[in-house]
């Protein structure tokens, strides 16, 4: 099935009507570019110029929807106009058809029409001058250039500017889209970072509170309950302090709300001592040199989260924490006794392993966690940045 012809643009209809009325007015006033005595006037009828005028005007509604068809029909009408007394309006309308064919036509038409009209301009000037042996024959080429080459060149220039503007608009849209994607990714990454920090800073305090509150509720021993409540209070205060610092950073990140310095591996001893106070048998085996700050923070948080999980899930027995520096990486390993089927001593969110895996991935490292032969093992390889001291 053939596609229906698109509706002509309203401006093109006005051009057609205006051109037709203007040509009829000039014909009624007897204004013609050629006298009836001219040798090229083969069609002497007084109404003859109206025929190519009407055909050319009828082609104007096609200047946007079918520009090549309009140009071909208009060219035939212009040839017919040359054997009559002619109409200036017909020539003007034809130049507009040439311009529109280049501007609104296919890319192939936009390339070929200026080249063809240029060749016709050269031939129209050189051939008559050579045949007639009269330099005035060059005026024919000038006329062809004015009628065909000039509007074709103008159409090509306008089209190039229009295409350049469209390309610039598309580039601007793509740039805006990429900027929005970057912004979304940055927001997502920042939210994930805040979630990891919030989980790692507060989870161990809340786990200790849950475990000791369970002990206080289940044991009818005033002394034990008092010790448990003391631990609960200490962890509550510490957890609130951490929350207050993090909220302060999110609000303005300045002044007295600025969080304290990031934890370092030198603080693992104090961290282990805190978990020992909760009843966890933590044993440290650290052997490392100076490491970059991002690696140091990631290793500290991985050990902290591993001990928190051990506090909630591990069976009775020692929890071994080992760090060593080897092959351009810092290796972290935390093992704890594990008995399948044991119920956790405190509820968990399930985000701890995900956070540790993300921390290792952000540094280009690896992370593994799983149970084997009654031991739960957490292993992480954290590459050291190039140029940092080892």
Could you please describe the fold and organization of this structure?
The chain is α+β, with helices and mostly antiparallel strands and 390 residues long. The protein has 2 domains: 10-174, no CATH class; 264-390, Heat Shock Protein 90. Helix content is 62%, strand content 10%. The chain has helices spanning 10-28, 50-59, 67-81, 88-104, 107-132, 138-218, 222-251, 268-277, 293-313, 352-362; strands at 282-287, 319-326, 329-337, 366-372, 375-383. The protein has a 5-stranded mixed β-sheet, covered by helices on one side. It is rod-shaped, with a radius of gyration of 44 Å. The two termini are 75 Å apart. Residues 254-260 and 386-390 have low confidence and may be disordered.
Q: What's the main sheet like?
A: 5 strands, mixed
What's the number of domains?
2
From the alpha carbons, calculate the radius of gyration and give it in angstroms.
44 Å
Name the overall outline: rod-shaped
Uncertain runs are 254-260, 386-390
**Order of secondary-structure elements:** HHHHHHHHEHEEHEE
Percent of residues in beta strands?
Answer: 5-15%
Q: Bin the helical content.
A: 55-70%
Total strand count, please? 5
- Mean pLDDT value: 82
Number of helices: 10
Cα end-to-end separation? 75 Å
What structural class do the secondary elements suggest? Answer: alpha+beta
Strand arrangement, major sheet: 1-2-3-5-4
């Amino acid at each position: 099935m053939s596609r229906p012809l698109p509706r002509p643009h309203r401006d093109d209809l006005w051009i057609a009507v205006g051109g037709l009325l203007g040509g009829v007015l000039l014909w009624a006033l007897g204004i013609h570019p050629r006298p009836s005595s001219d040798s090229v006037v083969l069609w002497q009828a007084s109404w003859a110029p109206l025929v190519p005028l009407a055909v050319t005007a009828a082609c104007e509604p096609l200047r946007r929807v079918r520009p090549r068809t309009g140009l071909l029909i208009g060219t035939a009408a212009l040839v017919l106009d040359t054997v009559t007394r002619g109409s200036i309006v017909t020539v003007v309308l034809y130049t507009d058809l040439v311009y529109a064919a280049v501007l609104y036509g296919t890319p192939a038409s936009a390339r070929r029409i200026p080249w063809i009209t240029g060749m016709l301009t050269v031939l129209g000037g050189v051939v008559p001058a050579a045949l007639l042996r009269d330099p005035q024959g060059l005026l024919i080429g000038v006329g062809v250039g004015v009628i065909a080459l000039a509007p074709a060149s103008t159409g090509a220039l306008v089209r190039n500017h229009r295409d350049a503007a469209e390309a610039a608009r598309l580039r601007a849209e793509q740039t805006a889209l990429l900027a929005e994607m970057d912004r979304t990714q940055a927001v997502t990454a920042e939210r994930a970072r805040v979630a990891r920090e919030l989980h790692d800073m507060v989870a161990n305090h809340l786990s200790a509170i849950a475990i000791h509150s369970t002990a206080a509720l289940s044991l009818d021993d005033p002394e034990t309950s008092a010790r448990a409540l003391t631990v609960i209070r200490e962890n509550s205060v510490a957890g609130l302090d951490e929350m207050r610092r993090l909220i302060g950073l999110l609000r303005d990140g300045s002044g007295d709300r600025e969080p304290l310095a990031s934890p370092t591996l030198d603080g693992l001893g104090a961290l282990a001592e805190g978990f020992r106070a909760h009843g966890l048998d933590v044993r440290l085996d650290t052997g490392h040199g100076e490491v970059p700050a991002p690696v140091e923070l990631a290793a500290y948080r991985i050990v902290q989260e591993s001990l928190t999980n051990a506090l909630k899930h591990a069976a009775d027995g020692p929890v071994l924490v080992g760090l060593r520096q080897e092959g351009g990486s810092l290796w972290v390993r935390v093992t704890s006794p594990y008995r399948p089927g044991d119920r956790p001593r405190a509820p968990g969110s399930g985000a701890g392993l995900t956070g540790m895996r993300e921390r290792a991935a952000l540094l280009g490292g690896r992370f593994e966690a799983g149970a084997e032969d009654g031991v739960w093992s957490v292993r992480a390889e954290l590459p050291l940045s190039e140029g940092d001291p080892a």
